[in-house]
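User: I'm writing a short report section on ligand binding and want a predicted complex to refer to. Could you take this sequence and D-xylitol-5-phosphate and write out the structure as tokens? A short remark afterwards would be nice.
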Amino acid sequence: MTFDRSIKIAPSILSADFANFGQEIRAIEDQGADWVHVDVMDGHFVPNLTFGPPLCKAIRPHIKTVMDVHLMISPVDAYIDAYADAGADVITAHLEAGPHIHRTLQAIRGAGCKAGLALNPGTGLDQIEYLMDQLDLICVMTVNPGFGGQKFIASQIDKVRKLRAMIGDREIHIEIDGGMTPETAPLMAAAGADVLVAGSAVFKGGSVSQPDVYGQNIAAIRKAAQDAQDAQ
Ligand code: DX5
Ligand code: ZN
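Assistant: Sure. The structure tokens for the complex follow:
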């Protein structure tokens, strides 16, 4: 993975057909997805249950781009090696998931993955100052984690702007997760984000037999975001 701040679209397979992950992943990658975002939920940190390490391992051979694993689980440390072994390129843990986030980030890099830190909408930036050198990505949640298809929380635009200034020249991606559409993505791109996760807005209206709809959805989000980034 080389670093740049170009706009990257990361479809969340939470909105894919769960009976057909291999073909769904091939379809979104053929249609322009830059990363594949995998939402792991434990029914404890968030009120929903999704993918364990065996599922991640099973889909890994189908991913040609980047496997971006978002762990919405607590505790998290005991599972890092399993998701790394399953083939994650990026592992993101939540600041709110436990008392030892510094150790968690060390463990993620120690397992050979890029380290991501996710912040819930209610979490401020005051706790990340001494984590900056441990980080490859910061994920700003623009919905409360747990479900796809929720409404974008606009107060996070200001958070991303402040975060971009804090990051400066450091090679840290800003990822946005939740409610991304061609209307909301440009707001975040203008504020400084480069990785845009989108579930419902990518998969809406398409299927593996109509993959061009995925392509149109991805292109619409990308164009809106790129135009906003270029205008900065
Ligand atoms: C929310 C997940 C998101 C979600 C995004 O807990 O982390 O990745 O699936 O879905 P949309 O794009 O539908 O808001
Ligand atoms: Zn996510």
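A remark for your report: The chain has a mean pLDDT of 98. The first strand starts at residue 8 and ends at 11.
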